[in-house]
Amino acid sequence: GPLNPVNLTVRIEGKLPIRDIKSHHHPVVISNPGGGPISVKLQDGPVPADRDFELTWFPDIPRAAVSIYTEDWKGERYGLVMVTPPAGKSPQVPNRYREIIFIIDTSGSMAGKSLSQAKASLRYALEKLGRQDRFNVIQFNSHTSSLFDAAVPANKKNLSAARTYIDDLDAQGGTEMRPAIRFALDGQDDRSRLRQVIFITDGGVSNEAKLFREIAARLSDTRFFTIGIGSAPNQHFMRWAAKYGRGTFTFIGDLDQAESRMKELWEKLSRPVLTHLSIQPRSEGFIEAYPKMIPDLFVGEPVVFAFRFSDGLKAFKVRGQGPNGLWSEDFNLENASTGKGISKLWAREKIDNLGSSVYWGVFTDEVHKEATDVALKHELVTRYTSLVAIDETPARGPGEDLISKNMPTNLPFGWEYEKVFGGKKGEGMPLMHKTLLREARISFQTAFVSIKQAPPTAIAANTNTAAKTLTLPQTATPSQLYLLIGLLSVFGAILLALRWGRLGSRP
Asked: Whole-angstrom Cα distance, residue 15 to residue 88?
């Protein structure tokens, strides 16, 4: 049954008027007592933690607005800027030739609603491609394959082939993302086109660092957009992959959201408000802003960045590429509002930037030292630092033994147990393990045939080559449990053999 009940209350307070407050996966009660902060509470009280709670709202403003806050902290000055795009559609810009690469996850964890959402999202995106666009579709599970060898024109023939290809997609196997990302980011031939990669997955992956390194090394001027599918995507990977790729993260938690969310994303892809944003001081002094790569400004998604600046700095300039060419605007720090906690936001962004700089080849020890210094100065808990609280109250009586056990958790909403873990009572084999076993058998048979046919001097080389061709899926499995079962089976077989041996030796 459902476990880990959660209750929460959200209070929204800000200077800009907002509209269309909506909870997408849980019924809520919205109130605004006395015209103060807006309160949002779960309608049914505590609910099981088996999906994300998602709350959205929109600014109710006719044109872009900029909010600036500053803070003095321990003799240093910090600032925070939020650029909010206007409500409605983004400005029209001349059509630019684009190359759009779709990557879709078809691993075993995508079975059921997740794959249905992903397919619906892909179908909608295909319908919106222009005649001047080029595209390709890449799928991955334990292996990577693509519809076309390279991006092709979005004509009727190719789009029809893509629809058939999408209809035939099935969830099976593990989650091997790296070859798919490498294939998509290495395929850029026409530099005159705006290149956009759309990555659709439930994010069931544990090797985030390697994937971030692939994106950083191969991104160039491509924009990397991520779409999280299902009730519990790996938002750490999805959000940071989009951040490193100067794109956006879109969450589709329900099949009914597929068209509306893809419509919003397509609006962003088609006409960004501002791109290639940067911040520069307007007078003597310095300004240190994070994130270093400020993301593009899209309709429906504000851009926020924090900065530290010298005491003598009075103004700064934000520059970018707008629909009509170069865009720039000056901002006066003397007119900024006073805020709290900005120094910690800046420190957190700097530490995140230092952590990601490893993917760009910065020496790890240098990152560790600088990030630790910033974290200690601003009293932050990070991967390098901890805050320790000492409680001297006894938690268990003298002589009592420590108890260790596995804590039960909820299966993410919409997941199919049998597809991911096998039968409820343990019978049967999960699809991802069937796929792995089939691959192992094929590789073994191939290696065996090669050994029989090859001359004696080539046997060792062929054996090594065959062993390297086996690609293991990275989807998490209960490996310790399977190892224990295997060991018990081996010991059982040994005991059985000994018993039969004794019986056979009797006169």
From this structure: 19
User: Whole-angstrom Cα distance, residue 297 to residue 247?
Assistant: 10
Give the pLDDT confidence of 76-94 residue by residue, as tens digits.
Answer: 999 999 888 766 555 454 4
Q: List, in sequence order, every residue forming a beta bridge with 135; answer none if it has no partner.
A: 100, 152
Predicted confidence (pLDDT) at residue 347 exceeds the cutoff of 90: yes
Within 10 A of 146 (CB to CB), how many other CB atoms are there? Answer: 20
Rounded to an integer, the average pLDDT of 11-25 is: 85
The CA–CA distances, whole Å, from 416 to 166, 400, 420, 456 equal 21, 41, 7, 49
**Phi, psi dihedral angles at 336 (to 5 degrees):** -75, 155
Residue type, 317: K
Q: Is the peptide bond before 48 cis (omega within 30 degrees of 0)?
A: no
Indicate if the pLDDT at residue 437 is higher than 60. no
The helix or strand, by DSSP H or E, that contains position 137, with its residue range, turns out to be strand 134-140
Please name which of 169, 242, 234, 241 lies closest in space to residue 202, comparing C-alpha atoms.
234
Q: Do 82 and 302 form a contact (C-beta atoms < 8 A)? A: yes
158-167 LR contacts (CB < 8 Å, sep 24+)? 159/126, 159/129, 162/126, 162/135, 162/137, 163/123, 163/126, 165/137, 166/104, 166/119, 166/122, 166/123, 166/126, 166/137, 167/119
The strand pair at 194-201 and 98-105 is best described as: parallel
Interval 24-46 mean pLDDT: 88
Question: Nearest CA to 78 among 241, 386, 290?
Answer: 290
Tell me the percentage of the chain whose pLDDT exceeds 70.
78
How many Å apart are CA 432 and CA 379, to the nearest integer? 44
Q: Once rounded to an integer, what is the mean pLDDT over residues 412-425?
A: 70
Residue 467 reports pLDDT greater than 50:
no
Cα–Cα distance for residue pair 271/100, rounded to 1 Å: 14
Contact criterion met (CB below 8 Å) for 50 and 413? yes
Please check the confidence at residue 21 and state whether its pLDDT lies above 60: yes
Give the helix/strand (H/E) hosting 317: strand 315-322
C-alpha distance from residue 399 to each of 226, 304, 396, 404 (Å): 53, 54, 9, 16
